[in-house]
Amino acid sequence: MKSLPMILTLALVAMMAAVTIGASTMAVAEPLRLRLEDPNIEPVPIAVPTFLAETPEAQRYAEEITRVVAEDLVGTGLFREIGPEAFISRITNFDSPVQYVDWKAINAQALITGSVAVGADGRLSVKFRLFDVFSDAALGEGLQFGGTTTSWGRMAHKVADAAYSRITGEGGYFDSRVVFVAETGPKDARQKRIAIMDYDGANVQYLTDSASIVLAPRFSPDGGRVLYTSYETGSPSIFMLDLATMARRQISADLGSMTFSPRFSRDGQRVIYSMSQGGNTDLWMQDLAGGVPVRLTNAPSIETAPSFSPDGSQIVFESDRSGNQQLYIMDANGGEPRRISFDTGRYGTPVWSPRGDYIAFTKQEKGAFFIGVMRIDGSEERLLTQSFLDEGPTWAPNGRVIMFHRETSGAGGEAALYSVDISGRNLRRIITETGGSDPSWGPLLP
């Protein structure tokens, strides 16, 4: 299990300060704006010169922060980086006027400049500005972030989030974490541990050992706790882990029952899950402060994989009450469900978008698995991926990107994490030090 100090470091990073830096140029034209609803988006050419090191100790951090900022933006598929070999102008002073004509000459539409310093107290300071080259203007105010040197990666993600938001008009998602199942060993003897990482696969930390099978970790809305299913008691049971203290507790341990597929309510005060008793599987809700679990469904079918709507008033889940797996929506307190999936194939693992506009799902049809999205009334179904086994979608905090896991076929098959834009563009593998499955994307960090 990962040591406690690493988890505490992440909590300390949340204390980073951000202040604005006055822009030196007033806007004179329509600002740069990337329309994400455009089906034919061309990547925006951007220039990201290496951030200036204002102190000798800052050189390494300046180079690494620049690299991460560029990788974050290019990794969305919405931006194209112009290499430094094409630069005409050189940034030698953070406060010097921008030579827009030189950046226009290499067709850079956006320019990101920055500087990094390590103070006498050992703390890191990062400043950046974003420029709209063809408008001859700064795009918003500059920002400054401060924190420990170990938090340099988070500060890089925050810079990228700010640039992404200003150019797209939507929230960013780079300064966030993903909890998942890390997998090692052969397919017939797979070792599994709950792990947590940055959204891009960096800074992996292991939260459990591999002594027992663990499945389906799920973040709390504030990102401070994780629910997961473990077989350590001999049958599937739900546990909750506090990331700040590493304390954990078992949730709902009814004798003779199996509990699995948990998820937090939107206020983080309750847990919804599936419980199997006497051969029947229904949805249940339990208040984390105590009390008796409440049964939400009562049918001879299997009800599982619940997910709350953003306002917490409804639940989407999968059920085979119609004869095979389909998706249903019902009130959060129970009631008569309504079916929303009607196409051919089987549907499972539904997850409501944080925007409330789409539901992501896994679909199985004709020997293949797909990750798809549909409107909450079941319309506009769109399949985004296809492979031997794609499963378990989870939404980025801004509702623009979906992460899932893909497993390859055969005895040597392995599981890996992938992401894809909700338009179906930019399918990417997330590089991790082990195999990975069952991702759950947490909120933006403070």
Task: Supply the key terms.
446 residues, mainly beta, Rossmann fold, Neuraminidase, eight-stranded mixed β-sheet, four-stranded antiparallel β-sheet, 4 helices, disordered N terminus
Topology overview:
Layout: H1 4-13, E1 17-21, E2 44-47, E3 52-53, H2 59-74, E4 79-81, H3 100-105, E5 110-118, E6 124-132, E7 137-138, E8 142-147, H4 152-168, E9 176-184, E10 191-198, E11 205-206, E12 214-219, E13 225-230, E14 237-242, E15 248-251, E16 258-264, E17 270-277, E18 280-287, E19 294-295, E20 303-308, E21 314-319, E22 326-331, E23 338-339, E24 346-352, E25 358-365, E26 368-375, E27 382-383, E28 390-395, E29 401-407, E30 415-421, E31 428-430, E32 435-444
Parallel strand pairs: 2-4, 2-5, 3-5
Antiparallel strand pairs: 1-8, 5-6, 6-7, 6-8, 9-10, 9-32, 10-11, 12-13, 13-14, 14-15, 16-17, 17-18, 18-19, 20-21, 21-22, 22-23, 24-25, 25-26, 26-27, 28-29, 29-30, 30-31
Helix pairs in contact: 2-4
CATH architecture heading of the largest domain: 6 Propeller
Percentage of residues in helical conformation: 10-25%
User: Based on helices, strands and strand pairing, what is the structural class?
Assistant: mainly beta
CATH class designation of the largest domain: Mainly Beta
Look at the structure and name the CATH superfamily of the largest domain.
TolB, C-terminal domain
